[in-house]
Amino acid sequence: MNNPSVPEGGKAHAGNFFEDFRLGQEIRHATSRTITDGDVAVYNGLFGPRFAVQSSDTFARAVGYPRAPIDDLLVFHVVFGKTVPDISLNAVANLGYAECRFLKAVYPGDTLNAVSEVIGLKENSSRKTGIVHVRSRGFNRDGASVLDFIRWVMVRKRDENAAAPKEKIPDTAKSIDASALGAACPTIVVSRYDATLAGSPHLFGDYTAGEKIDHIDGITVEEAEHQIATRLYQNPARIHFNNFAESKGRFGRRLIYGGHVISLARALSFNGLGNAFHIAAINGGRHVAPLFGGDTVFAWSQVLARSEIAGRTDVGALRLRTIATKDRPCTDFPFKTGDDYDPAVILDLDYWVLMPR
Amino acid sequence: MNNPSVPEGGKAHAGNFFEDFRLGQEIRHATSRTITDGDVAVYNGLFGPRFAVQSSDTFARAVGYPRAPIDDLLVFHVVFGKTVPDISLNAVANLGYAECRFLKAVYPGDTLNAVSEVIGLKENSSRKTGIVHVRSRGFNRDGASVLDFIRWVMVRKRDENAAAPKEKIPDTAKSIDASALGAACPTIVVSRYDATLAGSPHLFGDYTAGEKIDHIDGITVEEAEHQIATRLYQNPARIHFNNFAESKGRFGRRLIYGGHVISLARALSFNGLGNAFHIAAINGGRHVAPLFGGDTVFAWSQVLARSEIAGRTDVGALRLRTIATKDRPCTDFPFKTGDDYDPAVILDLDYWVLMPR
Amino acid sequence: MNNPSVPEGGKAHAGNFFEDFRLGQEIRHATSRTITDGDVAVYNGLFGPRFAVQSSDTFARAVGYPRAPIDDLLVFHVVFGKTVPDISLNAVANLGYAECRFLKAVYPGDTLNAVSEVIGLKENSSRKTGIVHVRSRGFNRDGASVLDFIRWVMVRKRDENAAAPKEKIPDTAKSIDASALGAACPTIVVSRYDATLAGSPHLFGDYTAGEKIDHIDGITVEEAEHQIATRLYQNPARIHFNNFAESKGRFGRRLIYGGHVISLARALSFNGLGNAFHIAAINGGRHVAPLFGGDTVFAWSQVLARSEIAGRTDVGALRLRTIATKDRPCTDFPFKTGDDYDPAVILDLDYWVLMPR
Fold it and tell me: Please, which residues have CB within 8 angstroms of residue B12's CB and are 6 or more apart in sequence?
């Protein structure tokens, strides 16, 4: 049985279904993509990040970069977007991320490509879907890895009767070890890091484990905004764009790409974490609930841990949990009651940032 | 009688009316415009095209371009936009296009200018409007033509009693001959054209005349998106921007620039035509029905003809009909019943694309 | 008493309140920012300006610039945006501008920074708010001033009982003297200024004091558009982004950044002032009434004065009043009845533009 939406002999690609994946399979993704100053500007217009290193060539050069690097999350979204046509076009849900490391700074003019390896498969008991685990890698034109991450998604089967694959669920680290952080960050000349110009007086030493920060502001998301962002990443997941279909679907409307929430939370986090100029790793992320056009996103963060990085005296690492909510300010740090998230929570992100010492 | 919306002595330009045009008249258009990486990024955010040659400097260089060229339709829209203040500010309808050829690749940093020649005039029997045919040409700062096309528009008369001009309707070719295609495409090094990285296994030889392709996906258009696009092209046609006036007008709302539909259909067509990296010519186009904010656009294509290009072994040409619809998936290829278009059809575009052989 | 929205010990910044300002205080603002071709493209997509000097490197070089300079208002908004976190995050109203001069052309690749000096303070009789006057200066990485302006804002007090500062209201000039204009404009090679390519036949000598121009067109503003613009400038004023809070606030909805209206009016003014390629100074500006998403903006201008500039034969200066309205065409030049503005007026801007002679 073929996918009914693709006519016999049609050359359009309806995406891979669960039974199309094989353990160990390596998938080279389209589309090769050069990142430019233009991409940066569109991203800035959509999220308004204010971290100085990414905002200013002059600031970046002063502290040790050859020029302002591309925002880490823009790199993530572009690489992620490449994996969508092959991995998650028929996904029911994006279940999680792990072991995401930023390995090399990306600059305007760099070309990004991506490959994924299938590292886990497990059919669900319904036999209608299965879980696919992939390790995806983004690399530049010299073949150097810039980003590496694991994600797992629930993917529909084309045919419920297709045989189930041998089950394999990969072990993933709960957290990237601090010693593995910082590959994408040159040595920072801390004496030339101008905290006033960066917008925050608080450096690595000022944060303590357990500390909570309400990022105060809220940003309302418009349909045009998330569509522009997701297309900028060349992420063609249908659920974000096709209101004709989605108005009759699960949510009655378009679903916003989960990465949009991460970028909003990151931009909001500037207020309180203004010197956290680089995301070094994402330990794990969960899209607790969906976000829709018209919703207003708020965020707060907790410092889960502080760590020096072996061999580096310029920067230290903060492990953060950032919680994003919709239509609910975070003054009182909404999180969980027992195992259940506060109903307003939409994102629970566990990641490492670097900050000057 | 003057245009009542322009006060006596006012320096604002209300646009040309039908009786302002003279056969053979040459009109140099404003505004000179440099295309940049920034324009490309905004365009990508609005349409999400994924053709590898335009997306990646590295991919483009590998196959024979000096760098990634500007998307053909972005060039078209910018040149078209320049003609609007002089040709179609008082247009009732954009009736058609013919003999559109892309003559030279355009790159970031190139400056575009445009001129039009009036090649046909015919007053309508109502005496309230007339049809103006122009051949418009876009050229770069070296004066080399990058684009050449004919369009005809129905333009209001300022004064119903103004004398009718001598009637002239130009002959236009039904289709550009395949031998005239490819001027804007360098010799492609097919051995270095990586179809996996481009996102489609189907090359020129895999398509057959008559073949139909449903492009599957749908894209909902937001008001902000088409306004941003149309302004990016410096196209000031009022009907796209002024909801105060249009809410009382013909459609009760802003009308979306017809070129927006062409760009959406082109982006959708990637799914099934991923290696059709270059639009070489547009034989004809008809905006069958208007598109409005909130509508969802779908598209399908039929291969009308396949043609080799004399003297070239690197690429071949496919003549395509791409049909765009609104709020109607194209699984069953909606087109015409007799002479009448399916009521969901909004665009009927006949054009040539190049594909590696 | 602390700001209740910031928890004890929280590192997020709730902005300065009236009693935080001291006369003579100098504030260095974050975030250092490099302006790129990408920013220009996003700005163009949002406003659609068509002034040739800013649109075309080729045109700009012909007349004497090294390349197309950044739109004056984009420079203004970026510098203004930097001042917001320190000056006006707790502002009730942006009351006025004065003595704004553009001092040096800005080009893609330039990095902008900003400092402000507190030059006036006056507590209001309610004791709940006070007026803060600042002189803000934008400068490039070489430390050269590119922009200098005074603005005054009404700012909330954190604590009504805090002591009032010594009152000081600075004198500001009603208008910049014409002899002080033009620092940001190189000598224009008028013989190479192609007015057809610029889109208007009217040069400096064609305008007369008192003359009025209806700019005819209207532009409807979408929520996504003003949010993208304001974030592009890294202006984090909450009232523009947080519909959750604003829907319960003063206006029941998000307020559009006043600078958005200035940019719309400037873009509209192209029709009638197409050769007014450079804003040399803003004498004063008043946001008479708020603008909201869905409103349509119109504009008209009056020439208040014409002035030669001592020592320059290339360009002359026009002092303009541009009035913007919402949901009301400007055919009859709506302005004031006695001291009261027409209820449709939203902006009254008094500024100097340069035009080729």
Answer: B6, C213, C214, C215, C216, C271, C272
Which pLDDT belongs to residue A13? Answer: 87
CA distance B354 to A117: 33
Q: Dump pLDDT digits (tens) for A169-193.
A: 999 999 999 999 999 999 999 999 9
User: Torsion-angle region of residue A294: left (phi > 0), alpha (psi -120 to 50) or beta?
Assistant: left
Residue B327: Cβ within 10 Å count: 16
Of the partner residues C34, C41, C242, the one whose CB lies closest to the CB of residue A56: C34
Q: Please name the amino acid found at residue A52.
A: A
Q: Please check whether residue A22 is in contact with residue A118, taking contact to mean a CB–CB distance below 8 angstroms.
A: yes
Give backbone dihedrals phi and psi of C344, rounded to 5 degrees, phi first.
Answer: -85, -15
State how far residue A293 is from chain B, nearest Cα, in angstroms.
Answer: 12
Chain A residue set in contact with B, beta carbons under 8 Å: 5-7, 9-14, 28, 30-34, 36-39, 41-42, 85, 109, 111, 113, 141, 222-224, 227-232, 234, 236, 238, 241-245, 254
Cβ–Cβ < 8 Å for C175, C283: yes
Instruction: State which amino acid sits at residue A199.
Output: G
Q: What is the pTM of this model?
A: 0.97
Q: Chain C partners of B223 at a C-beta cutoff of 8 Å?
A: 220, 222
Residue B205 DSSP label? G
Cβ-Cβ contacts under 8 Å, A27 against chain B: none
> Is the predicted pLDDT of residue A1 greater than 60, yes or no?
no
Residue C73 in this model has a pLDDT that exceeds 90: yes
- Closest of C272, C283, C274, C278 to residue C321, by C-alpha: C283
Q: Which residues of C79-118 are buried (b: 16+ CB within 10 A; e: fewer)?
A: bbbbbbbbbbbbbbebebbbbbbbbbbbbbebbbbbbbeb
3-state secondary structure C71-84: CHHHHHHHHHHHHH
> How far is it, in rounded angstroms, from Cα C346 to Cα C357?
32
pLDDT class of B254 with cuts at 50, 70, 90: very high
CA-based nearest residue in chain B for residue A235 = B48
Pairing of strands A296-309, A219-220: antiparallel
Q: How far apart are CA C239 and CA C241, in angstroms?
A: 6
Q: How far apart are CA A298 and CA C242, in angstroms?
A: 9
Q: Quick check: B144 and B75 in contact, CB under 8 A? A: no
Assembly ipTM: 0.96
B5, B27, B32, B292: best to mutate for the C interface, most C CBs within 10 A = B32
User: Which chains contact B through at least 3 pairs of Cβ atoms less than 8 Å apart?
Assistant: A, C
pLDDT tens, C231-241?
999 999 999 99
CA dist., res. A296 & res. A291, Å (int): 9
Report how far residue A351's alpha carbon sits from residue A175's, in angstroms, rounded to the nearest whole number. 8
Nearest-Cα distance to chain B for C160, in Å, is 42
Of C39, C48, C207, the CB nearest to B236: C48
Binding partners of C (≥3 Cβ pairs within 8 A) = A, B
Phi/psi of residue A219, nearest 5 degrees: -125, 125
Closest CA to A329 of C12, C116, B12, B259: C12
CA-wise closest residue to B73 among B232, B259, B227: B259
Q: How far apart are the first and last CA of chain C?
A: 60
Nearest to B12 among C41, C44, C216 (CB): C216
**CB of B84 closer than 8 Å to CB of B51:** no
What is residue B227's three-state secondary structure? helix
d(CA C6, CA A331): 7
Residues C319, C351 contacting (CB under 8 angstroms):
yes
